[in-house]
Amino acid sequence: MKKMHFVGLTLVLNMTQIGIALAGDVDPASVPAAKQTISKSYLTAKEAAALKQSMGGKALLVDVRTPAEIEYVGVADMIDVGIPYMMDDYTAWDDKKARFMMSPNSGFLTKMSDAMTKVGLDKSSPVIVMCRSGDRSARAADLLTQSGYTKVYSVVEGFEGDQAKDGDRKGQRVVNGWKNAGLPWSYNLNKNKMYIE
Q1: Splitting the chain (197 residues) into consecutive groups of 10 residues, what average pLDDT does each group show?
Q2: Would you list the domain boundaries of the chain?
Q3: CATH architecture of the domain formed by 2-193
């Protein structure tokens, strides 16, 4: 009987920890407009890592950056799949942003559905979405929410983090984010997790 009480207590504690991880500590009112989502469900990079670790295969961590970003900037060791929300268009230039244009990935929702099915998850399973700094992940989270996914969390800091506003490193992405939090990442890519059209 003692063993059953212990197992029950362990289950309650684990579910409580998962609930805490799902809630996150990010105050939705503090999230910049460009990073806000319909669901108002946000995680810091550390919270995203903790949630993924606590839930393992029962939550999907998706990197929505472009394949080039992942290849040259690095990737979180914990991601399940890379599915770009936007794709670089090397035939057009964005004067306002001083970069190549980006276009929505028309295959995003199909690839997401495929990834969820592959690991036995559905639209009610937690999905953690991460981009460079939180803007694209917010848009991807909105698209997923509008498509019936019920537990979508945007990593507000992204993989690289926000830019420093002043000091010697002004303009560099050194403020927060997965890399700056000391979370595991590398330049080594896993072909089975990468986006291949």
Answers
A1: 40 41 78 97 97 95 97 97 96 95 97 97 98 97 98 97 94 94 97 93
A2: 2-193
A3: 3-Layer(aba) Sandwich (3.40)
